[in-house]
Amino acid sequence: MSIIGHASEPQGRARALLGLSGFRRLLGTRLLSQLSDGVFQVSLASYVVFSPERQPTAGAIASAFAVLLLPFCLCGPFAGVLLDRWRRRQTLLYGNLIRLVLCAGTAWLVLLKVPTPVFFAAALLVTGVNRFILAGLSAALPQVVPDTLLVSANSIAPTMGTIASTIGGGAAFVVQLVLPAGPEANAALLVLAGLGYGSASLAARTMSRDLLGPARGPQARQPLHQVIAETAAGLLDGVRQLVRDSRPAAYALAAVTVCRFCYGLLLVLLLMLCRNSFSTPGDQSAGIRWLGLALAASAAGFFTAAVVTPWATRRMGVGGWLVCCSALAAVLTPALGLFFTPLPIMAAAYLLGLFSQGAKISTDTVVQTSVDDAYRGRVFAVYDVLFNGSLVAAAAVAAALMPTSGRSVVVILVSALLYALTALGYGLTLRHSKPSAPVPCPVSSSV
């Protein structure tokens, strides 16, 4: 297979990528894995937010975010050091198998009606393995895609994964509406998620063991006990590499972390509006329907970002598009969010999905093109930790600022201000740095 010629149309870029066998297999693994993530996440949301016996507050939601994510914000970088030493294909294969077993065990605990902390502990393990899976998927992408197609690959692969997660969540919402409310419905969703993870493991098995790297540089493969002993030193080396030799990646990570914080604020606001304002607090089905509609609007935004981002980056650069996404979010968040009514909020969900995914695609590309492959896995693990840490912090802030109804002018205005400061700050780093080479036009493939 050879990669030749130029293609300016999205269809040509998609054909070029789908002509790459490694990309197709990695994409299939991602889609099955993230489809199952959507089912799993809805099972958690149903248990924590939409159970008929619970009347959650913003504080309760923040506590759930912290229980699920905060431990992995602390240990995530250590996972990255391991990820740079393990075969990424093996991580995808066995990681998804482990999640299959954990989901089955968690479903059993739900049927036993164990105390909430026990349920959270089991869910914590599933979410923890996911840190390896997502970081591995992103770090492996440059191994199966040439540099000239990375922007398009980052538009298609993570975005399609996010859409798959949304589709999985939507299907889980339908199952939740059909089945009687109770532990049996939550257990059924967990079993479905586990089966999906098993399918993702089978998809990963179709790739050769060494296809996804990491590249074996001067660092020799070490026994596990030595790796654990040197994890702290290895992580420090990765941070030094990021700050000293990969300033563009460091600036982009800082910008997308603030954007993620804003997204977390607005996510808690959306949950509270769907649960307590757009429907009566006791009407579980109505709350699930509103949240499902919001997720569908966000999925449409993610899909639009996949189409628009390659076009936008060719015209304004990868960094310029990140600035544009932040600036537009700063303007449109208060313009639509301050109505606190369903139609403007659904429009905001679509646009924030577009801008959030556009910023993430840009950041993925900056990290992949400016960080050496020997460090890329741990940098993406740090990236993942920043995402989760900012979400936990946002949930905690939202708990302090937000009423139970979700109608918080303060949250809307704070989010808009932070988006604006991100656009300004990151834009200044672009002005004071050397002009980067233009993003190459994606190319088509021929067999």
Report on this model:
The chain has a single domain (2-213, 227-434), classed as MFS general substrate transporter like domains (Growth Hormone, Chain: A, Up-down Bundle), CATH 1.20.1250.20. 79% of the residues lie in helices and 1% in strands. The chain is built from 14 helices and 2 strands. A two-stranded antiparallel sheet has the order 1-2. The protein is globular, with a radius of gyration of 21 Å. The relative contact order is 0.17. Mean pLDDT is 83; it is low at 1-8 and 435-447.
Could you list some keywords that capture this structure?
single chain, disordered N terminus, 447 residues, disordered C terminus, mainly alpha, Growth Hormone, Chain: A, 14 helices, two-stranded antiparallel sheet
Question: What would you call the structural class?
Answer: mainly alpha
State the total count of DSSP E strands: 2
* CATH architecture verdict: Up-down Bundle
Q: Provide the CATH topology.
A: Growth Hormone, Chain: A
Order of helices and strands: EHHHHHHHHHHHHHHE
Reported for the largest beta sheet, the result is:
2 strands, antiparallel
The outline comes out as: globular
Beta-strand content bin: under 5%
**CATH H-level homologous superfamily name:** MFS general substrate transporter like domains
Task: Please give the count of helices.
Answer: 14
Number of domains: 1
Tell me, what is the CATH class? Mainly Alpha
Strand order of the largest sheet: 1-2
Helix and strand layout, with pairings?
Elements (H helix, E strand, L loop, with lengths): L1 E3 L5 H9 L2 H28 L9 H26 L4 H24 L4 H29 L5 H29 L4 H23 L18 H6 L1 H15 L1 H31 L6 H54 L4 H29 L2 H29 L7 H23 L12 E3 L1
